[in-house]
Amino acid sequence: MRTIRIRTFLIWALLLISTLPWITFVVVHLLLTKQLAFATNQPQTQVQAHDVMRMAPFNAWQIFAIILGFGLAVFIVGIAMRRFIIKPLEAMRRAAGQIAVGDLDVVLSKSRVLEIAEVSNGFESMVVGLQNAFQKQTVLEEERTFVINAVAHDLRTPIFALRGYLDGLEKGIAHTPEKMAMYVAVCKESAGQLDHLVTDLFTFTQMAYTEADGFAIQSELVDIKDVVMQSVDGLRVLATEKEISLLVDVHSGNFYIHGDRHLLARAMNNLIDNAVRHTPQKGDIRVQCSRSPGKVRIVVRDSGAGFSIEDIPHVFEPLYRGEDSRNRSTGGAGLGLAIAQRIIRRHGGDVAAENHADGGAIVTFWLPDITDGLPLTIQPSVGDWID
């Protein structure tokens, strides 16, 4: 749609108002006299009384023509102003009133005046932004409500176990050392489940609010190899309790990225912990860290039952319950992989899950590698498997 500036519109309006009366005057004069001459060649003394009487009606038509032209010009300018200036402004005023009461379904009129069109387009962009923000906020609120309700439900199991066994200890039901030790062990296990659930809930909520509000994560220079090794060392005891062989293949050298060390460690812990919980007794888990052009690649593979075909598209959804072995029956809240995915994506990477051809699950994620851009003297080289 062709547009003009408001000053150009006003100039054309003034030009129309000033010229249209004279145009109508000339047209009426031409119709009455059949000529364009406005002066008479006769001397003033020769004008008779009947000539003056004959010219009087003509003078009235001239005045009428000027008034008609002026009125027509004002009418045309008024119609144009109403269509291209007043109506769009009225539409924006009504839209602002609708937005004030929460109604974002607004319709704005188009204008050929450039300044009004720009304001209208900006208003439309604002409305679209508000609609997207409202939809995103609605989805986030539904997700948060669902997460809180689901985790609150999951918290009841260890809480009931704690209360029951503590009541048993208090009432003396566990009267032998062996039974007391068993009661204490169950209480410790339930307390560990509570700690795991609360930590997952806190981290998930923190990441959700960070994404919604646009807050930046704490960024520093991180050697992802150190993060991997610390996570493996921290979970090695848990793996040993299940007689799981935890093997690590980390190339020598440094794999530097920009990111939040604490969050990256949380993501790595979640992935390895998920593998340990779903790996059977005397199984094995392999963690590999390698480089490809521009990326650091970390692979966590276990010897468990793997993911079902139906579960693979949903394994990173919060609180997703699989139908087979990899579900929350192992004590998790269903937030570990979702948290890991959010943390990794916030660092500019991504994560994927699949099954190995020989059995077991594989979770692979990558992060942007900045090692080549640093003045390092030690370059990565292939290392050996560490048990």
TrEMBL record:
It is an enzyme of class 2 (transferase). Keywords: ATP-binding, Cell membrane, Kinase, Membrane, Nucleotide-binding, Phosphoprotein, Transferase, Transmembrane, Transmembrane helix, Two-component regulatory system. It is a multi-pass membrane protein. It is found in: Cell membrane. Pfam families: HAMP, HATPase_c, HisKA. Residues 150-371 form the Histidine kinase domain. It catalyses: ATP + protein L-histidine = ADP + protein N-phospho-L-histidine. This is histidine kinase. Its EC number is 2.7.13.3. One of its GO terms (molecular function) is kinase activity. The chain crosses the membrane at residues 9-32, 60-85. Residues 83-135 form the HAMP domain.
